[in-house]
Amino acid sequence: MTQMPADRILINGVALTISKGRAQALAIRDGRIEAVGRTADIRVLAGPQTEVIDLKGKALMPAFIDAHMHLVSQGLKETGYILDLSETRSLSEALERVREAVKERGEGVWVRGRGWDESIWPEKRYLTRADLDRIAPKNPVALSRVDGHMLIANSQALKLVSVTADSDEFDPQQGLLRERAVNGFLQQITPKLEEIEEAIRAGVRLAHSLGITAIHDVVRTEHIRAYQRLHRRGELHLRVRMNAPVEHLDSLIALGFSSDFGDEILKLGAIKIFTDGSIGARNAALFEPYIDSSTGLAATGKLNYVQSELNALVKVAHENGFQLMIHAIGDRAIGAAVDALKAASVGPRDRARIEHLELPTEEQLQKAKELGVIASMQPNFLQWSGSGGLYETRLGLERDARIDPHRAVLDMKVPLALGSDGMPFNPLYGIHLAVNALYEQQRLSVEEALHAYTLGAAYAGFQEDELGSLEPGKWADLIVLSEDPTSSPENIREIQVLETYLAGERVFHYEEASE
Ligand SMILES: [Zn+2]
Predict the structure, then answer these.
(1) Is residue 304 part of a domain?
(2) 448 and 480, same domain (yes or no)
(3) Are residues 363 and 486 in the same domain?
(4) Which residues constitute the domain of residue 311?
(5) Is residue 399 situated within a structural domain?
(6) Cα(268)–Cα(355) distance, integer angstroms
(7) Ligand 1 centroid to 515 CA: how many Å?
(8) Position 69 pLDDT exceeds 50
(9) How far is the CA of 70 from the centre of ligand 1 (A)?
(10) What separation in Å is there between the alpha carbon of 345 and the centre of ligand 1?
(11) For residue 413, how far is its CA from the centre of ligand 1 (angstroms)?
(12) What is the pLDDT of residues 460-485, one digit of tens each?
């Protein structure tokens, strides 16, 4: 029997297989990797119709899997529906951007923004309702902080949207909302389905340009709807694992759904539970108080559940076949998450995930290891670590030095999956920060970081047999990079993604900007 020739071969490269060292070349057939090896061995798999791509020494590796993403939010910024404030360098610049948007859109039209981060502004304070009223007296304005755990609304917005929340989640004077108050607010001003579809398309294009072909997304009802519509039309060119908010757990169980329902593109993932907020919103739950003062907030942040409540939710989700995805940033929240997983008798087979895991104690990591918990971390959060940064200002030197401890996680043999949380959406940037981290507990080798952003993330999504490394039989989800990341670790963030392949098809090709 003669073998069918490959559809496409990539030769003369530096192939980082992630699982089995290095190779030079790779053959693709029917969307999957057919063989990996030396150029001479791969060449013989080509037939007259085979496309031959000479990598000329460029690096080839599996495409990135972003294990924690909010694609619709990102896409809405790309399409301009949401004003992107992540590049603003001062409070006054942010206000100027809003003023321009108000002028452009005209009286009465909503201005929604996202991405502001007071910790990098010289003013070092949150936006306020009064700030926004001054520049937008006749437009409703709502601006989410970079972490999404806080939102500032002006008077017009608060007239149109009703907010009912405790005083630690809603300060009407400041126009400041936190946590569930933010969700409740945003649910009342959701974009139209067509706008969400357009946002997803834009988000997918951006993902391809960053070398990403799969994400673990945190979705809402209308996102699920839009993803399905795109997929039905064959227009969803990204593998999306949709993680559902715990608020919908009862309905999902009643309907008989469980984790992993779906196909190779669109799947139902885990149940997402928030146990605390964020350090930026100053409501991550800590054992020891924050060191900066703040009125109206508990000194040690806030747990969103009492333990028995959390235990019950985790147990129900687990017993009904759902993977758990528990957001826990502060040490007190991580403790609560680990205890709830233990009480539910979760084991390594279940691959429960703790998201962010920013301040774990050694004892908590030990317990996480025993329970087979996956650490789903975002190395790009290290942008807030270091001298004068948000973490040091809020938490002090000692805790800043042990925040985001990727090294300690791996040393404890806790499986690590990396993602971006969209801050920013960019794996190479996150990998750069992990590899070049200031503190030893945070630092990863290039190989470790690449593994966690590919095979590690695939494992967190139960897809390590299909994705995450260059091995025969796996999907040909690949990227070509301008440089081998292991050759100059201090320049990883300068590396350009040149090509991205999804199931063997080229979905991105870098065009050098004309001079
Ligand atoms: Zn997130």
Answers:
(1) yes
(2) no
(3) no
(4) 269-460
(5) yes
(6) 17
(7) 37
(8) yes
(9) 6
(10) 26
(11) 24
(12) 999 999 999 999 999 999 999 999 99
Task: Calculate how far, in angstroms, residue 96's C-alpha sits from the geometric centre of ligand 1.
Answer: 27
312 and 418 both lie in a single domain: yes
Distance in Å, CA 68 to ligand 1 centroid? 6
The DSSP H or E segment spanning 100 is helix 91-105
Q: How confident is the model at residue 164 (pLDDT cuts 50, 70, 90)?
A: confident
187, 214, 229 - which closes a domain: 187
Q: Find where tokens 């290891």 sit.
A: 369
Statement to judge: residues 52 and 111 lie in one domain: no
User: Residue 124 falls within a domain, yes or no?
Assistant: yes
Cα 375 to middle of ligand 1, angstroms: 14
Distance 274 CA to ligand 1 centre (A): 10
Q: What is the CATH number of the domain that holds 325?
A: 3.20.20.140
DSSP state letters, 111-130:
EEEEEE-GGGSTT-S---HH
CA of 421 to the centre of ligand 1 (A): 5
151 and 179 co-located in one domain: yes
Residues 406 and 490 in one domain: no
Q: Report the C-alpha gap between 17 and 303 in whole angstroms.
A: 41
332 Cα–ligand 1 center, Å? 19
Structural domains counted in the chain: 3
pLDDT digits (tens, 9 = 90+) for 171-224: 999 999 998 999 999 989 989 999 999 999 999 999 999 999 999 999 999 999
User: Residue 299: which of 282, 275, 278 has the closest Cα?
Assistant: 282
Q: Does 206 reside within a domain?
A: no
Ligand 1 centre to CA of 502 (Å) is: 24
Q: Is 62 helix (H, G, I), strand (E, B) or coil?
A: strand
Residues 293 and 441 in one domain: yes
Q: How far is the CA of 216 from the centre of ligand 1 (A)?
A: 10
Give the CATH number of the domain where residue 153 resides.
Answer: 3.10.310.70
- The confidence score (pLDDT) of residue 294 equals 73
CB atoms within 10 A of CB 494: 11
* Band of residue 515 on the pLDDT scale cut at 50, 70, 90: very low
Distance 164 CA to ligand 1 centre (A): 23
C-alpha 286 – ligand 1 centre gap (Å): 19
Backbone angles phi, psi at 290, to 5 degrees: -60, 150
Q: What is the pLDDT of residues 28-58, one digit of tens each?
A: 999 999 999 999 999 999 999 999 999 999 9
Complex-level ipTM: 0.95
- Residues whose CB falls within 8 Å of the CB of residue 111, separated by 6 or more in sequence, listed in order: 83, 98, 101, 102, 105, 136, 139, 140, 141, 142
Predicted confidence band of residue 2 (pLDDT cuts 50, 70, 90): low
Q: Residue 505, Cβ neighbours under 10 Å: how many?
A: 14
**Distance from Cα 271 to the centre of ligand 1, integer Å:** 13
Give the distance (Å) from ligand 1 centre to CA of residue 241: 14
For ligand 1, the distance from its centroid to the CA atom of residue 273, given in whole angstroms, is 11
Q: How far is the CA of 276 from the centre of ligand 1 (A)?
A: 12
Residue 275 CA to ligand 1 centre (angstroms): 13
- Domain end, chosen from 421, 439, 460, is at 460
